[in-house]
Amino acid sequence: MIKVKGIEATAAGLLKLREEARAKVDEYLGRLADSIAGRARQNAPVRTGRLRQSIEARKTAPLQHVVEASAPYAGYVEHGTSKTPPRRFMQNAVAQTLENPP
């Protein structure tokens, strides 16, 4: 008969390590979202400042962060219209952050 000692301690240690890793990943995702939001604010065209002020990063769930421009016309600026070309402030912010992460 083979007896394994310390299996409970090992399992508990692995669970703790999993939670610590999850917390670190969540923290890093938050920093990425904050960086994207900051760069999007810098990239956004300014007329009144409303678009820039509407850009925010927030945590919506564990391991889930959202960067959003809530100005009603943000999508038209980002993607353009039949009369205006797209000004990709958000897409460029994501690319810039992925090239130079925080």
Tally of alpha and pi helices: 4
Work out the strand percent.
5-15%
Helix content: 55-70%
- The largest beta-sheet arranges its strands as 1-2
Shape: rod-shaped
Count of extended strands: 2
Count of discrete structural domains: 1
Structural overview:
With 102 residues, the protein is α+β, with helices and mostly antiparallel strands. 58% of the residues lie in helices and 13% in strands. The chain has helices at 7-43, 50-54, 74-79, 89-99; strands at residues 55-61, 64-69. Strands 1-2 form a two-stranded antiparallel ribbon. Strand 1 and strand 2 (64-69) form a beta hairpin. Helix 1 (7-43) crosses helix 4. The mean pLDDT is 94.
Offer a quick outline of the entry.
The chain has helices at 7-43, 50-54, 74-79, 89-99; strands at residues 55-61, 64-69. The protein is α+β, with helices and mostly antiparallel strands. Helix 1 crosses helix 4.
